[in-house]
Design brief:
Elements lengths: L18 E6 L5 E9 L2 E8 L5 E3 L6 E7 L5 E7 L6 E7 L6 E2 L6 E5 L5 E6 L6 E6 L6 E2 L11 E2 L5 E6 L6 E6 L6 E2 L8 E5 L5 E6 L11 E6 L6 E2 L15
Antiparallel strand pairs: 1-2, 2-3, 3-4, 5-6, 6-7, 7-8, 9-10, 10-11, 11-12, 13-14, 14-15, 15-16, 17-18, 18-19, 19-20
Amino acid sequence: MNADGSGFRRLTTEDYVRHFYPSLSPNGQRVLYSVYVVDNNYEIYQMDIESGNVAQLTNSYGVDNAPEISPNGQSLIFMHNAPTRNINQIVVADQDGANAGNIPRITGWDPTWSPDGKLILFASDRDGAVQLFTIRLDGSQIHRITNLPAIRGRSDWSADGQYIVTYSGEAWHRELYIMNADGSNVHQLTPTGGNSQGPSFSPDGRWVAFTAYFDKYNDEHGCEIYIIRIDGTDLRRLTKNDYCDYQPRWGP
């Protein structure tokens, strides 16, 4: 849909197949997403938005999700979990899924690129409680940047590299938090009471899109897409459907 909520249209057409974790390519021409194939098997697919042509990018038994194309359009990152090992790995591949390999020595999920493509932001329980970390693609210079009580994942980095947004909190009490890219000056962004989650920065860095339940609290099918300014003002609802709208990702 358009950034103001207009132009809402459906892209995937299989009614009885799960499609989730969407993200747009840097040029806005493709959407990547995860597809439920069979039990314990989710693969990454890519769709050309104009033509509707679809290509499967992964073919490795396990759970592949949270795909995202690098800022230069050349690489793909996603999470892979092999059911036989139950380890969440951050995998980097060519943009077409070839030459896939995990970042050495780390486990985690919900990866996202820094604007310059040099770092990966991801969630992990490597130190116990789930927190956000950054790391280089070669597995070096890992830094923990958060100390929040109940981080889930699905964070984002502003296009100017200055800010990170994430969500934290127990079930039905989650809120968005915004901070400097090094984790300093962390503060709550969303009004309390919306069970807010899954944030994504606008390309100009002035807004955050996210899922929340402000209008249908405690209704598990009641989540809608909202936007809010990064100073916490001007909350707006974009969707109005009789099903849950979630995991928004902003494109160019």
